[in-house]
Each structure stands twice: as structure tokens, then as C-alpha cells.
Amino acid sequence: MKTGFLYGIVACSKTRVRCVLCGVHIPKANKCIEQHTNGAKHKENVELMTENGITFKDNKLYCKPCMLELSLEDSVIGHTEAESHLNWMAAMEDLIDGEYISIEPFLASEKDDALCEVCHSTFQCTLQNIESHVNSINHRTSISEYLKPLNGIFPVENDDELWCKICNTFIENTATGILEHIDNDEQHMYWFTTIEDLIEEQDITIKSFLANEFDNNAYCNKCHLEINCNARSLEDHINSDIHLSHFS
Ligand SMILES: [Zn+2]
Ligand SMILES: [Zn+2]
Ligand SMILES: [Zn+2]
Ligand SMILES: [Zn+2]
Ligand SMILES: [Zn+2]
């Protein structure tokens, strides 16, 4: 019951109630309570809860990340600014950065668990679990399999190696080799930054170019034209009259 106007309101004294989300007292009259729960401050705190894994159940505030029942003296803001909570959130963000692990539904209490989008597996959302998952061989393998067709990386006859079409270079056929190339190879990263900068907001797609070894073209969805997938040709096309005419 996240929308009911009594959400977050607990009895306090004969004349007052308390909003435990905001940590304030309110006169015990429906009109006052409703006014409070419709207020911007209260709504902000409800939103803060969904971003921070805090729930309100059985008149109690509970923080799922910290696995901690908050004292009624606490408020949502108070807890989200607490060091232990901030540390968890920061450590978690570090762990899942670039790992395709989704924890938003967990924080918003829509799901009990974290979800790995590349392994299609769910697990209890603790720092320890996530850390061991992101470091597992299974996850490293899934993520490199997922990234290959997004990065122009293809198998070759020799199983020990892969071929990067973008850099025209061979890389080691291991999860580490692939991730190392995608995340650290300067030429590879430079190509992506350049091309992505160019096609951003131009409705040009390079997905098929990246996923198909023998496709040499980007595709302009506006002009229904294939364009050689290199910076020079793309730039020429983006500045051509035919393409510009679609954006005026
Ligand atoms: Zn409130
Ligand atoms: Zn917490
Ligand atoms: Zn995974
Ligand atoms: Zn490359
Ligand atoms: Zn075009």
C-alpha cells in the first residue's frame, strides 16, 4: 500500500501521529495527515525509499541493504545519509558498474533479489554475493559472450584466438582477453567513442555491422541507406543534403 494516505503514518499520542518516513509529527486529523502525505517532502521521501531499498511494513521502517530495522527516531533521510548505508550503496555501485546486474527492482522492493541480466540468474542482493558472482568464471564468460556481438569480435579457425573486426587484430580467446580488449585497448575504445559521437541522435545504427563479420555498413534509418562504417563516410553522410533534409 504505497499510495494510501496513511502510508508511513503511525499512532503517536492522543492528539498527534508521526510520519516515520519524514520523521515529523502531525496533528491527528485526517485533513492534516492527508495534506502531509500529499506534500512534496513526503513524496520525495517515498521516492528516496525506492532508491535505497527501504520499506515500510507493519508500522516499521526496514532497510534491505543494511538488513536493519530502523528505529522510529530515524527517518528515511536520516538513514540514507548514515555512513553505513552510504558505504553499502557506494560499494554496490562499484561492484555492479558495467556488470549488467540490476538491483533497482530489489531496492524498489519489486523483487527480492538482484538479477544478472547476462547470466539470467537471480541471487540474494548482498555485497558478498554480488562480489562472488561478478568474479565467477560463469559470469565472466556470459559477459564476454554478450559483449562479443556488440564489439565486432568474431571466432577464427584457431580456437585460441578471436578476431576484432574494428581493430583488425587478434585477441586471446578468454573472457579476460575479451574484456581486456574491450575495456582497455586504446584503438578499440577510440573507434567507439568517435563513431558513437558521430551517430548520436542521427538515427544511424551500427548493430549489424558489429554483429556480422561480413557486413561493412552502418545503416541510416532516416535515409534508408547503407553507409560504409567508418568515421569519414559517416561524417560525409551526416552532413549530406539528403540526410540533413530529414532533420529540418
Ligand atoms: Zn511524511
Ligand atoms: Zn541502509
Ligand atoms: Zn552474471
Ligand atoms: Zn578491437
Ligand atoms: Zn541519413
TrEMBL record:
<dbReference type="GO" id="GO:0003676">
    <property type="term" value="F:nucleic acid binding"/>
</dbReference>
<dbReference type="InterPro" id="IPR003604">
    <property type="entry name" value="Matrin/U1-like-C_Znf_C2H2"/>
</dbReference>
<feature type="domain" description="U1-type">
    <location>
        <begin position="14"/>
        <end position="49"/>
    </location>
</feature>
<feature type="domain" description="U1-type">
    <location>
        <begin position="111"/>
        <end position="146"/>
    </location>
</feature>
<dbReference type="GO" id="GO:0008270">
    <property type="term" value="F:zinc ion binding"/>
</dbReference>
<protein>
    <recommendedName>
        <fullName>U1-type domain-containing protein</fullName>
    </recommendedName>
</protein>
